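Quick one, probably user error.
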């Protein structure tokens, strides 16, 4: 019996009409039943929706932002479809629903739930456009709402998967369809037990592909990117990058843990557990080899650079002349857990704890408020966290030239530095 396959196309691969036409060309000789296609929101749509939410939260007028977003998608459709096509009424209905959801109240307490309800429209809109365009080209796919099968808890913005329920519903609802047609669906979104929209974490469409692959016992997952495969650094930030022809699950997981953006960090584990290989390929050169991530790949040991921007360094100093102990660390981590803030780097001294976290709306203020009675707190925003895996110590100074280093630490395998441009 033939196995299922999962393809995932990110925002850059559906960012405009020519990108969607290119997606159709990629699928021309690859489209078949037993294929599930997962698509992200188009281009920077998620960023645009986040800005709308922020304006709503700040009691600012966001109507122009909504109009610009609508015209962006309509403009793409006008280039792809005849003017009487069904897509225009489908799009109109989705934007009417978005407007109605934006009328609902928002505050700091329900911000995450409101966020999930709104940002998911990016994937719903893009998947409708891509599905209708493929059908227009004679590439028949069945559009499915991922929220009907991706079941999660109610931890909005960072929802955790109900694996058993997701597997049961995905197989019951989608396997009969896949016997005859490919399915096109959305990444990033799910729903909780009350049917409320949830999201799986920023850039979570890769994770969706892995969830569906394990639920459907797929033979492989392919993520289509604007890079030739997994590189040892982001080519937009660092020169002379190297492509990995293959990677072991463990090495890939380590890269994503430290923030490598080519793959969502939650993607590797379910695929590794199920022994499903992951291919990372270029939608600009679809016949090239890309990178294969699987369990039998040899360790590469090539120095790998990961840069995370918009970082915040927060230092908690005890005020009663005692030393830092497990109780202090537990107290800090409890507050971080409550606010869903992940620690990207940790450093301890005798009297202080320093953590590096992603910058998130409201969260820093809430963190400070929750711990100011116990600690003297200082923080710096607008920083970068540089991580070098399989480091070559001789190459580190050049990476820090022109930067002020606020914090650094090194192990046999890993070097990390919190930095900012000198003079800032």
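Nope, works fine. Designed sequence:
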């Amino acid at each position: 019996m033939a196995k299922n396959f999962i393809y995932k196309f990110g925002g850059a691969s559906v960012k405009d009409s020519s990108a969607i036409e290119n997606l159709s060309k990629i699928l021309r000789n690859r489209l078949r039943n037993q294929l599930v296609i997962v698509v992200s929101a188009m281009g920077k749509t998620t960023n645009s929706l986040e800005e709308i939410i922020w304006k709503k939260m700040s009691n600012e007028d966001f109507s122009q932002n909504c109009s610009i977003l609508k015209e962006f998608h309509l403009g793409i459709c006008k280039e792809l479809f005849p003017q009487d096509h069904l897509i225009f009424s489908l799009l109109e209905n989705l934007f009417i629903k978005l407007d109605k959801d934006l009328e609902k109240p928002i505050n700091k307490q329900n911000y995450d739930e409101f966020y999930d309800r709104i940002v998911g429209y990016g994937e719903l809109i893009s998947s409708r456009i891509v599905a209708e365009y493929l059908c227009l080209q004679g590439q028949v796919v069945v559009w499915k709402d991922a929220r009907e099968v991706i079941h999660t808890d109610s931890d909005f913005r960072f929802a955790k998967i109900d694996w058993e329920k997701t597997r049961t519903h995905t197989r019951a609802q989608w396997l009969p369809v896949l016997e005859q047609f490919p399915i096109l669906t959305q990444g990033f979104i799910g729903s909780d037990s009350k049917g409320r929209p949830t999201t799986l974490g920023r850039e979570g469409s890769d994770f969706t592909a892995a969830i569906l692959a394990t639920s459907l016992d797929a033979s492989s997952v392919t993520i289509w990117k604007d890079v030739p495969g997994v590189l040892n650094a982001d080519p937009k930030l660092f020169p002379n990058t190297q492509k990995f022809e293959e990677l072991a699950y463990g090495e890939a997981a380590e890269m994503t843990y430290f923030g490598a953006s080519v793959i969502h960090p939650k993607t590797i584990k379910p695929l590794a557990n199920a022994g499903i290989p992951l291919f990372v390929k270029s939608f600009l050169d679809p016949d090239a080899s890309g990178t294969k991530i699987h369990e039998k790949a040899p360790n590469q040991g090539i120095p790998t650079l990961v840069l995370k921007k918009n970082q915040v360094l927060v230092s908690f100093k005890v005020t009663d002349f005692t030393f830092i102990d497990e109780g202090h660390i537990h107290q800090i981590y409890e507050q971080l857990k409550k606010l869903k803030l992940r620690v990207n780097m940790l450093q301890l001294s005798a009297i202080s704890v320093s953590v590096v976290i992603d910058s998130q709306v409201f969260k820093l203020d809430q963190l400070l408020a929750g711990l100011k009675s116990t600690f003297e707190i200082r923080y710096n925003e607008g920083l970068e966290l540089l991580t070098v895996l399989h480091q070559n110590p001789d190459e580190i100074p050049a990476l820090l030239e022109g930067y002020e280093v606020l914090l650094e630490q090194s192990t046999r395998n890993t070097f990390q530095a919190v930095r900012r441009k000198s003079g800032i």
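The two ends are 61 Å apart (CA to CA).
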